[in-house]
Amino acid sequence: MCHKLQHLVLKVENNVMKNSSKSMELPFLSFPRAFLYGPFERTITVHKDSAGTVGFGFKNGKIINLVKDSSAARNGVLIDHNLLEVNGQNVVGLKDKEISAIIREAPSPVTVTIMPSFIYDHMLKNTASSFIKKTMDHTIPDL
User: Cα separation of 34 and 18, whole Å?
Assistant: First the structure.
């Protein structure tokens, strides 16, 4: 964390954590950005094939299969990982159809950020779904 910003604190109210009646304070930069990113996330660039697909399938944002010898398989995309971003756009909480549309409309190559599902699930199970829906920024980043 940048030393200049250590004094900044984000107050997290009881509606953020499930089953919590207390407020808590967290370093400003550690939430919600650290909620998605950390030592377990990986960013991978994949190329679309001649049919325009990226070589993996997903359900509920979780990668469930890989196409043999696809760019995704060769470049390190793994099953049992959740999609966090597509070309820098946050896809957490989006429906599969919405994620598919983002991938379909993206030019090749496509950059995906993934996280192991067991870590993703652990983080989400203690976070109120209403908080995720209200605070997630799904806008397309300026490149």
Answer: 18
| Per-residue pLDDT tens digits for 2-23 | 333 333 333 444 444 444 555 4
pTM here is 0.69
Q: Cα torsion at 84, 80, 41, 119 (round to 10°)?
A: 100
User: What is the distance between the alpha carbons of residues 16 and 8, in angstroms, rounded to a whole number?
Assistant: 19
Q: Please tell me the distance from the alpha carbon of residue 28 to that of residue 8, in angstroms, as a whole number.
A: 5
Residue of 97, 94, 85 whose CA lies nearest to 44: 85
CA gap 110, 39 in Å, rounded:
21
Cβ atoms within 10 Å of 105's Cβ, excluding its own: 10
Q: Output the six-digit token pair for 103.
A: 């991938």
